[in-house]
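Need a sequence for this fold. Nothing fancy.
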């Protein structure tokens, strides 16, 4: 019996220990929301440099903010401070739920749950990509996702440069051929080919400059959203106003009788348009009676 009592007491102590440990474990599992940190937006893809390589840097991030409009303006200020510029700025409100209740006196109370989302596309000097992201981390209440990419572009850049050199050389060769003596039709062909070569050279130069610009400035896409809020609006209850200003019962009854009487008159007028048919019916009836008398 004593052994059983000791076992029961030991089991009770273990149960109390587990019960006391459970709230502590639950408390440890709950994480306080302190906002994003600089470490969460850091990556070597945004900072790595190599004298022999050229990188096209891109980044995407989605995060929650306290106020989309205020954070958007703050981020644009940081972009300007880092020597960059804004390519896109889209902000839209999305209504999630709407409820209406009558307040009397022809008024409605509308409660609408809504959130605001924003989309920013910015370009900053490639060397300032990491500094820009760390500068805007104070706007991030919670970081949902982020993505960094540094594409090695040295061979693509070389391809653009060689294409420009080929177009430049072809234009020079055709210029020399156009100056030589020969038939006019051959010269016309050379001149047209030279014009095409100039066009190809210009396109190659533009493509090279665009590529160099993508290397010099990183492209960063930011998606912002804020917690849902409730909007309270007082509206006019149009249906109630119509009911209050509609005519009374006897006025409506008299109007209905008048409309019905006019309907009967209209029907008689429409039937009178068929007088040839009625004439034929009368003639037929007279002829039928005479035939029966015989």
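Here you go.
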């Amino acid at each position: 019996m004593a052994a059983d009592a000791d076992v029961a007491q030991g089991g009770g102590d273990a149960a109390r220990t587990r019960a006391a440990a459970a709230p502590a474990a639950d408390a440890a599992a709950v994480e306080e929301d302190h906002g994003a940190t600089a470490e969460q937006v850091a990556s070597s893809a945004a900072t790595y440099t190599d004298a022999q390589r050229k990188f096209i840097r891109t980044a995407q991030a989605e995060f929650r903010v306290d106020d989309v409009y205020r954070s958007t303006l703050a981020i644009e200020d940081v972009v300007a401070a880092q020597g960059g510029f804004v390519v896109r700025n889209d902000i839209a409100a999305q209504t999630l739920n709407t409820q209406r209740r009558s307040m009397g006196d022809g008024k409605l109370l509308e409660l609408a749950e809504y959130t605001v989302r924003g989309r920013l596309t910015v370009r900053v000097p490639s060397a300032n990509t990491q500094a820009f992201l760390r500068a805007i981390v104070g706007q991030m209440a919670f970081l949902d996702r982020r993505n960094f990419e540094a594409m090695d572009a040295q061979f693509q850049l070389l391809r653009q440069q060689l294409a420009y050199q080929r177009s430049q050389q072809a234009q020079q060769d055709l210029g020399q051929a156009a100056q030589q003596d020969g038939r006019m039709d051959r010269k016309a062909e050379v001149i047209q080919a030279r014009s095409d070569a100039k066009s190809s050279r210009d396109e190659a130069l533009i493509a090279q400059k665009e590529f160099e610009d993508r290397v010099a400035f990183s492209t960063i896409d930011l998606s912002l959203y804020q917690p849902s809020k409730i909007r309270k609006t007082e509206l006019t209850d149009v249906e109630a106003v119509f009911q209050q200003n509609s005519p009374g019962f006897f006025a409506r009854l008299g109007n209905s009788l008048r409309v019905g009487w006019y309907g009967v008159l209209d029907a008689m007028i429409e039937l009178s348009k068929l007088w040839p048919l009625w004439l034929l019916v009368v003639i037929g009836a007279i002829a039928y009676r005479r035939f029966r008398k015989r």
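For context: The mean pLDDT is 77.
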